[in-house]
Amino acid sequence: MHRILRLTLALLIASSLCAKHHKSGELKPIFDGKTLEGWTQKNGTATYVVKDGAILGTTKEGSPNSFLCSNKLYGNFELQFEVKLINNELNSGVQIRSQTKPLNDKEKKRGDKFGRVNGPQVEIEATKGNGAESGYIYGEACGGWMTPKDKLKPHKHFKNGEWNKYRVLAEGARIRTWVNGKQVSDLVDEEKLKSHPKGFIGLQVHGIRKGSGPYSVAWRNLKAREIHSK
From 37, 103, 105, 187, which residue has the greatest number of CB atoms within 10 Å? Predict the structure, then answer.
């Protein structure tokens, strides 16, 4: 009888612990839908405003790539968000595990507050012709494409003029991505990812050539959960 009671108690405790672990691992909003609280612009002069429950980023002629970055840093995590390219001419992306390089003398002299944003970037690109490279991993200011060239296969999962749902799962040296429920990338690379084990999430507004734009991109329903090692 006592043995049965002890077993029942152990099962109840285990169930409670599992429930707590599940609760702590739920996706939580990282954008409140009303303000940019918790985010800081680190590069460029593109504008970021909240409009209709979304973050709207708009290019500014003469500006380099701009990034609105989360103040919180993430290592192993799941990220979900929706994105819409208001103008298909604009290339964009979302930084993950990213950092800023130390300021050089030129940057300090002109009054920059942050160094160059660098790290893995989840590509956002309109579908044209044979498709797009949306969802593949690019190394922003750190060597170009992280996704191997033979795996950069254009696809048509990204829907122009519509909200597109992205899912990103970053665990150690493995980054997986999905676009509108279709898996795009499964990158495993110890060498390329070891220098970026943890960092901020950043919303990119790409620089544009002189005489073009303005172009805009919008994000909404940004949610994340941290993944803790067992």
Answer: 187
Cβ-based burial of 80 (10 A; exposed 0-12, middle 13-18, buried ≥19): middle
C-alpha span between 167 and 138 (Å, rounded): 16
Say if residue 152 is exposed, middle or buried (CB neighbours under 10 Å; 0-12, 13-18, 19+): middle
- Beta-bridge mates of residue 187: 175
Of 14, 21, 17, 16, the C-alpha closest to 225 is: 21
Q: How many CB atoms lie within 10 A of CB 204?
A: 29
Q: Which domains does the chain have, with CATH numbers?
A: 28-226 (2.60.120.560)
**Rounded distance between C-alpha atoms, residue 98 and residue 76, angstroms:** 13
Instruction: Fill in the DSSP letter of residue 151.
Output: G
| Ranges of H-type helices in the chain | 2-24, 105-109, 190-193
Q: What is the pLDDT of residue 76?
A: 97
% residues pLDDT > 70 (the chain): 88
